[in-house]
Amino acid sequence: LPSAEDLNVNTKIAGNELLWKMMEDPALVEQFAKEKPELKSDPDLIRRIYLDLVTRPEYQSYLINSGREKQEEKKILEFIFNDMMLASENFVSHLEENFTNWNDDGEMIVQLLAGYLGKPHSFNFTEMLSADKALFAKQLLQTVLDKDAHLHEIIIPKLKNWDPERIALLDMILMKMGVAEFLYFETIPPKVTINEYIDLAKEYSTEQSGQFINGILDNIHKEMVRDGKMEKTEYRKNG
Q1: Cα(24)–Cα(149) distance, integer angstroms
Q2: pLDDT (tens digit, 9 = 90+) per residue, 115-129?
Q3: Which of 17, 18, 143, 210 could cross-link 201 (Cys pair, CB 3.0–4.6 Å)?
Q4: Which of 91, 69, 68, 70 is nearest to 80 (CA)?
């Protein structure tokens, strides 16, 4: 039989407003209905994480405060995700076993969620999960994979004062994506590409990444224009 302590469960975390904002997002609800992630859940693992959570000082402090301050709502979710779930070998193993692309996509997903928790109002799940965006993302990813060596050859000479081995992996990926858009996605204006990857670098990489990527992509863009290698629809119209 459950003890009195078991029956006296504090439900504050269940009413976390930031969590509900995410769970009630129409685009996310639609995606959950399609993917049915609940079928891959592990109740025993969830229970163990919860039992660990209720012993943590961070959680006890959260419960003591009866208010719903946005910063506190965000802080406890970040703690649960970063310090408990991702820190749990069992949880990470569960992800690896049930989501075949986790080893490839896990870092990006973690960064996206961290970005959402940091600035939830700047995220639009409808736009993030639209069919058009999914198709574009797949095409861009496949292009970067297929043309990786060529993209690398274009970028490396521009890193005169940088050791390629010390450049953040995410920065290199973003630069390859940007150059791929220059070369193979003719309807995307170069300025849009550069600004997009500056924003992504600022949001998800280091403090210096935005300025760094801006300089490299702008340099590559100018060289392509000079050498007549820009085949942009917009560029040809305006050129």
Answers
A1: 42
A2: 888 777 777 766 666
A3: 210
A4: 91
pTM for the structure as a whole:
0.56
User: What are the C-alpha distances in Å from 233 to residues 57, 61, 151, 178, 239?
Assistant: 58, 57, 21, 16, 10
- Rounded to whole angstroms, the Cα distance separating 211 from 166 reads 16
User: Is 216 within 8 Å of 208 (Cβ atoms)?
Assistant: no
d(CA 217, CA 219): 5
**Domains with residue ranges and CATH for the chain:** 4-125 (no CATH), 131-238 (1.10.940.10)
Q: CA–CA separation, 42 vs 93, rounded Å?
A: 12
Look at residues 137, 232, 161 and name the one whose alpha carbon lies nearest to residue 190: 232
Q: Is the dihedral of CA 66, 72, 75, 81 positive or negative?
A: positive
- Report yes or no: 143 and 180 within 8 Å, Cβ to Cβ: yes
Whether 238 has a pLDDT exceeding 60, the answer reads no
Closest CA to 125 of 106, 112, 140: 112
Average model confidence (pLDDT) across the chain = 86
Q: 169-191 burial, b if ≥16 CB within 10 A, otherwise e?
A: ebbbebbbbbbbbbbbbeebebe
